[in-house]
Write a structure and sequence with these properties.
It contains ten helices and eight strands. The chain is α+β, with helices and mostly antiparallel strands. Helix 1 (2-24) packs across helix 6 (136-150) and helix 6 runs antiparallel to helix 7 (157-194).
């Protein structure tokens, strides 16, 4: 998203200004770093055969620190030729290039989507989920010093101090987010124990734009819980919503490559629904129920039963439901709230589907 790209630009620009601003001036250093910080995301232009591949393989090799180490000398030498003021400082320039690229990958790993930061040594995405993809408290201090740097042709120690301070502050915020995530997970496990027993897997995720309110997914074989926790919550009943996962819809689709990729990428945090005769798989980690950001049609219900279909991305969902901002505001302040978008779903859940597999037709995947 654009805001996400802004974050990557200002982080690269701040890193580069801190390291190279003294040598080539803040403005040039900020522009160089911003460009380098955006570079790994050029992988969005790599064409993929199907929508599932472009979903699960995004943030791939261009985000690997090993690849960054390999391209650092090439980009570094280019900068040495471009700027006379850098010629005597090869190691400094290479360090700046590597850090502009790798810090991009590092903040991507902080989000839930994850990043293949250690490809090809460890090729699964690493995704912590302790910050939302857009977090003003992280981005604004960096944005402020970068705007200042872009208006300054010549270096001043004062600017240097502020850039360093902004980098320390934003990095400290990320460290804090991981500590809060651990705290929330412990609290969530306790709440699940008191409310019907521990789920198979628990994942605490920051909600949009903040690290005060958390969504914790409690995953079970045939259902999942969304538990919302605010750091300012007082004593009182927990805000938990339970939804069906309809695993029976998948019995015919578990062998398909499409399902296996989505299962792997979501780490098992998915749900399935029957929508207009289509079997739709949603990644539970991204977006608030029911407005999941990533939903794919992977099967269809015919007369003979369910058979593989697609895959195609389902784009019919509203990201922010009515009343969500009021709900989030109340929860930020630690006031109890009901997320109507989810509470209403609980009344609507229909009968379960008895699914059989269709043997006819070509197998997809």
């Amino acid at each position: 998203s654009a805001m996400d790209s802004l974050t990557q630009f200002v982080l690269g620009a701040a890193v580069s200004t801190a390291l190279l601003g003294r040598k080539i001036g803040p403005r040039k250093a900020a522009l160089v770093g911003g460009a380098l910080g955006t570079l790994p995301d050029l992988d969005v232009f790599i064409p993929f055969d199907d929508p599932v591949d472009s979903f699960v393989y995004h943030r791939g090799w261009t985000h690997s620190v090993f690849v960054h180490a390999l391209v650092t000398p090439i980009l570094g030498e280019g900068l040495l030729r471009l700027f006379r003021g850098l010629r005597a400082h090869r190691w400094l320039v290479w360090t700046a290039v590597f850090l502009c690229l790798s810090t991009h990958a590092i903040i991507d790993t902080m989000t839930v989507y994850g990043t293949r930061i250690f490809w090809p040594v460890y090729s699964d995405p690493v995704g912590i989920g302790s910050v939302f993809i857009i977090d003003p408290l992280y981005t604004l201090p960096l944005l402020a010093v970068v705007v200042w740097a872009l208006f300054r042709k010549s270096w001043t120690p004062r600017l240097g101090n502020w850039v360093t301070a902004a980098l320390l502050l934003s990095t400290g915020y990320l460290a804090l987010s991981i500590a809060v995530q651990q705290f929330v997970a412990v609290k969530a496990n306790r709440i699940f124990l008191e409310n019907g027993g521990p789920p198979d897997k628990v994942y605490a995720l920051a909600t949009p734009l903040n690290i005060l309110v958390w969504k914790v997914i409690g995953l079970r074989e045939d259902s999942y819980d969304n538990l919302y926790i605010s750091l300012l919550d007082g004593p009182g009943p927990a805000e938990i919503y339970t939804h069906p996962r309809n695993p029976e819809l998948l019995s015919c689709l578990e062998e398909t490559g499409t399902f296996q990729k989505l299962n792997w990428f979501s780490r098992g945090f998915f749900t399935t629904d029957l929508i207009d005769g289509n079997v739709v798989l949603s990644d539970l980690r991204m977006g608030l129920t029911p407005g999941y950001a990533f939903r794919f049609v992977i099967g269809e219900m015919g007369d003979a039963g369910i058979r593989p279909a697609g895959p195609e991305r389902l784009l019919d969902t509203v990201r922010v439901e009515e009343g969500d901002w009021d709900w989030l505001q109340a929860r930020l302040l630690g006031r109890p709230g009901v997320r109507h978008a989810e509470a209403d779903l609980l009344d609507l859940s229909g009968d379960s589907v008895v699914a059989s597999c269709s043997s006819g037709g070509p197998a997809a995947g």
